[in-house]
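We close this part of the discussion by returning to an individual protein. Part of our work consisted of pairing the sequence of a single chain with a tokenised description of its backbone. No coordinates are needed to read the tokens, only the vocabulary itself. The amino acid sequence and the backbone structure tokens for this protein are reproduced below:
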Amino acid sequence: MEPIISLKQVNKSYGTKQVLHDINLDIFPGQVIGYIGPNGAGKSTTVKILCGLLTDYTGQVQVAGVEVKADPLAVKKLVGYVPELADLYEVLTPWEYLEFVATLQGMEPSVYETRIQRMVEAFGLRDNLHQRMDSFSKGMRQKVLLISGILHNPGIIIFDEPLSGLDANSVILVKELISRLAREGKTIFYCSHMMDVVEKVSDRIVLISEGTVVADDTFANLQQRMGQQHLEQIFSSLTKHQQPGSSADELLRAFENNNAL
């Protein structure tokens, strides 16, 4: 089977700071990849490269057989992208915004009109469909962003912290949606700090630290190799982060002798 996403010797710098160091990844159709790492590890940079938003890197990146650097616009049509921050046109209603996105994707009204109605209903936004989004909560905006990212039924979906601001019921819905999409053969690239969710939805976990891949395996294999039960523990060990208890002790010490100030 040929990889649907391939990164070979990918390096990326911002000025004098190198954020990606020789990244090599082959991702295959139908896989759910949990892409994790500490802040500043290079996760968002990788995501932007895969979406065709950054092309000033070295190395080779192909998405569905398309060389990203050569044709980033073609890649954008192939990929569904849900970023962490819901940066929407807030003066529009969800219907107007989603219709705009569907038109950009070349969808016919006979297809997108019914699809929008059904997806908005599933996310509990039916009564808000024609309400301007400048009055929406963060969670409501995130739901619209999720719909816009998968509206054109892409074969590759990239989620960058997609659960930001969602309520518990919506989180459950998105987790189930990811599982169903994977069963349909979609490839999911899931970037998140929520280890419990990554642990449950991913069939392969890639851990990046300081711009370098330090682990690439199933969660079960990582458990066996590291001798630890939870992904959070594996994450801390591989990124050489101090134990949470020690960090908490340091924070609490900041309050000692406060009355003397």
Notes: The two ends are 66 Å apart (CA to CA). The chain has ten helices and ten strands.
